[in-house]
Amino acid sequence: MNIAAVLCGLAWKSLWSRRGTAFLTVVSLAIGVALVLGVDRLREEARASFANTVSGVDLIVGARSGPIALLLYSVFRIGNATNNISWAAYRRIAEHPDVAWAVPLSLGDSHRGYRVIGTERGYFQHYRFGKRERLAFAAGGPFEDLFDAVLGAEVAAALGYGLGDNIVIGHGLGAIEINKHDDRPFRVAGILRRTGTPVDRGVHVSLAGIEAMHIDWQDGRRQGGPSLSAERLRKLTLRPKALTAALIGLKSRFAVFTLQREINNDRREPLLAILPGVTLQALWDLMSNAELALAAIAIFVALAAFLGMLVMLLAGLGERRREIAILRAVGARPWQVFSLITLEAVVLTVLGLIVGLGLLYVGLVLARPVINDVYGIQIGVRGLSVRDLAYLVGFLAVGGLAGILPSYGAYRRSLVDGLIVRL
Amino acid sequence: MINIADLTFQWRPKGPGILDIERLSIADGERVFLHGPSGSGKTSLLNLLGGIVLPQRGRVELLGQDITPLSSAGRDRFRADHIGLIFQVFNLLPYLSLIENVALPCLFSTRRRRRAIRADGTVAAGAWRLLEEMDIPPARFAGQPVRDLSTGQQQRVAAARALIGDPEIIIADEPTSALDGVNTELFLDLIIQELQQRPTTLVFVSHDERLAERFDRTVSMSSLQPQQGATS
Lengths: 423, 232
Hints:
The complex is a heterodimer of chains A (about 425) and B (about 230). Chain A has 2 domains: about 180 residues, no CATH class; about 220 residues, no CATH class. Chain A has 13 helices and 17 strands. In chain A, helix 1 crosses helix 12, helix 10 runs parallel beside helix 13 and helix 11 crosses helix 13. Chain A is elongated. Chain B is α/β, with parallel strands linked by helices and about 230 residues long. In chain B, helix 3 crosses helix 4 and helix 7 packs parallel to helix 8. In chain B, a hairpin with a 2-residue loop joins strand 4 and strand 5. The interface between A and B is medium-sized, with 26 and 32 residues.
């Protein structure tokens, strides 16, 4: 009979007889494993999600504030602009000889918790995500009429909208709008294909549409008196006075730094131009400390779990002196006693890893919609990466190492006690 | 056959507790009652016979072979193959079933496994038969955890484990000291009856001299020592 199989069988039966404490140990190991892998996974997925959101945009221009804040509110729709840029400033930049295209963005309204983006038709043409993919329509097309809206895939799916449906846009960004622009409903003219970016969560209307919605409104409240009819609004030429931000594409990327400096030094208006890639990197740098802290906490939780296992095995040794003597009596060698305890540590660790992976995936599946809702970050549920496997191998090694101390204790006992245990 | 001659042993050099044995000779199939008060070196002697420790001087000859020159692995294998041990109390592994406890030596000794299979067809069948002979019919007891057995029952299970695979030497270390009179009698009756069918050597260690009459010969620890009172 294979001695390894014998020892595995004994280790398993011994653990099974202490399945209460063993179970708790496995659960604490699993939590540690799930935390470490989960933090790592969130970090990677968040980075991938951010990096995929914007491509092919050379500069983002907004009112002067922090570069990271500008990047977050203009592209990722996280947070709000503190200030606007004037229409005149936007036109100056758009007409700059180095600029190939410019897409204005006007944010600040919402529809049932989803942000409304006032923009131009160029948005659908120039916006790129992932590996320079264009936006595509699942149904309909860009907005034509003043009161046309184009929905992101998720908005349409979550709210069950189809082409031609009327929607009412509220002022402000809350999920519950107190001030609804319900006198001028919009019609769904197009639905975009899913992109896995914040675009999916946007309601896109024309800049003129945003203006039309806000005529007769001031300071977020409806003014008294009769309101203009939709027909009369259509006949007006509506032009916004201000924008939130603009996405800029250049004819030649070599001009990017020159233009950036030019915009940042504009004396007429305090503007800020950022390079999305550079600012994203700054964001990572900013977050790396927080990431490090999270990762450190996760690793300490895991180490505490391994310590718990060590304590469980060490505490068991005292009660197991007779067991060790019995095994020695029937011919078990000291190293076999040693491996028996190590095997228990390894079995506990392997179970901890399996349960931990289960926790990780259940957690990811549960957290995915919440993270997407709150932060607009897409967390993919993918298989194990080489990195994950390296973590798992590392855990197994730590588990085995944690088993060495109690194993050595058992080994020493087997030599000191011999066959006769006098307690 | 057990032969010990001119042996000196102590746990630590220059430490207390020197065991000196001028001569101990036990014939094949002999049932010896080894008697001595606590502290008389019985523990050391059992560890020497089991090959767990080596003497500083002298030979420990079992079955015609001096085990002192063997490696520790060789001594462990010798013990597994040829010696059945019964302890004072707590002989059973709580996480193994009744049958698994009896069959345990066959996991570590190929020789004893083969002998058990030759005798009874399978190891489990051998364990089953021995348990029945020890008056622990598995049909009745197999379902319950071994820790639920009474002390007397546990000692008889330990005897069955010592007997499986038919080792040449059985060493029992105070196996009845935790038992009441009735259980002590039962234990002795059953194990002696069991050994009558085979040429097994039995070394029965006890401080209870009333049991001595059941054995072929009584050896006193003090009689082994060259000088009186030199041991602890």
